[in-house]
Amino acid sequence: MKDLLPIIGLEIHIELKTQSKMFCRCDNNATGKKANTVVCPICLGHPGTLPSLNKQSVHYGLLLAQALNFKINQVSFFARKNYFYPDLPKGYQITQSDTPLGSQGYLTINGHQIAIERLHLEEDTGKLIHEANSNHSLVDYNRAGTPLIELVTYPIITSAVEACRFCQELQKILRYLNISNANMEQGEMRLEANISLQKKDAFDFVGPTLKVRPGHQLNHKVEVKNLNSFKALERAINYEIERQRQILDNGAMVVAETRGWDETKNVTVSQRRKETATEYRYFSEPDLPPLYIDDAWLLEIKQELDKIELPGAKAERWQKDYGWSADQADLLSTYSGSAAYSDELLTIIHQANPENYQEIARLAGNWLTSEVLKYCSLKDLSSNPITPRHLADLSMALANKTITSTNGQVVLQKIVENNKLSVAEIVEQLDLKQVDDSQEIIKLAREIIAQYPEQVAAYRAGKLALLQFFIGQIMRRSKGKANPELAREILEKELKN
């Protein structure tokens, strides 16, 4: 059926980097700790214990809510979500149901607003460990009680690419706000996708929601779990779209269920039927009072957020003010460290070249993404030996034709070996200054033409691509110092004679 449109909603769980857990004083960092050693009677749900809300987790929730344009509910409530599973020590999860911390937010992706239905706080579960070739599973409760934010988007996303882009931008924001490391391989940011295929004539988008047209009904959605990377998210959505399309093409109905993503087979597999909200028997948490957010706290959040330039705004500024491409700006805004490096680089260039800074900034951006990142990962950019000052000076030397691009790479290598040297010192020590003496280049050109008569004949017979061969010979003999544009001009004249 060609008239089917994918409808995708996302549920995203984010572990917060608070010092203690959500409702007790247990350390919130269990990395490297033995199983079931970072626990207490509260997070294990012993009878008679009472939860105490972690204020920092609320602060982090408010920061993210403001960054994502949410309406803050200044009075919200906690609830118990009741279900039985071995990793849930209390037999229920403390979460927020009817009135979450934030409602009706959005994140703009490529000029398009992705509407987010809610942002709420809750506690994490323990972790089930399934041992190979064993008839039992183990449970580690160190993670139980870890503060979580859950984001739920409206079903308004229509492609796997858009879903991934949303999650990638969200991950950047979490790291900029410094409220979560958001490392997916560590389970600090966990993704679930709700996917369905709907006939285009069966509904209308009314704001962020789907309104069914009279005489039509919507197909069931499928929830896909176990998505621990952006690549897994994209592949799972695309697989599920095709699986559901085949079912509908055959005249059958899609079953509403929860499916898991099998990374090794690249397929989704059925896990259980999809639960409804009523099956969780939500009711108000009797041991926690309503959560009140006063105006003073909201003002504090706003003032804190005003000091942070979020990745989308930063990337947009780089494109507008410095001529960086969208891909460059998007890449370099990924981490707060790489963004700080880029900002320092651009500031140095702008201050030193108020008239033509854009041209040099574009050159610096190209060298940063294509050459500097050969020596370090993007994540480690801020601590790599090639400092913003080095790259700014190198870019200015290249733009001013003080050195050639070939010798620019030599300079980078030398900086990596000894970053106490400046670009100017390296150029001086290694005698890398560009040769602009036309007589010297004419002499080299004539020597090369005399040395390669067959190539000269082929060039004059029409194989003009050989010009690059001759330029390469001049660059080699000049040890990369000859002005390549001047070399090209001289060779074209000499080869005509």
- In DSSP terms, counting alpha (H) and pi (I) runs of 4 or more, how many helices? 15
Beginning-to-end CA distance, first to last residue: 67 Å
Structurally, the number of domains stands at 3
**Strand content of the residues, in percent?**
15-25%
> How many individual β-strands?
18
Multimeric organization? single chain
Mean pLDDT metric: 91
The biggest sheet, with number of strands, parallel, antiparallel or mixed sense and barrel status, is: 9 strands, mixed
Give the helix proportion (percent range).
Answer: 25-40%
SS class: alpha+beta
Order of strands in the sheet with most strands: 2-6-7-10-1-11-14-15-16
List the uncertain runs.
none
Radius of gyration: 30 Å
Overall, the morphology is elongated
Structure description:
This protein has 497 residues and is α+β, with helices and mostly antiparallel strands. It folds into three domains: 4-296, no CATH class; 309-429, no CATH class; 438-496, Arc Repressor Mutant, subunit A. The chain has 15 helices and 18 strands. The strands form five sheets. Strands 2-6-7-10-1-11-14-15-16 form a nine-stranded mixed β-sheet. α5 packs across α6. The relative contact order is 0.09.
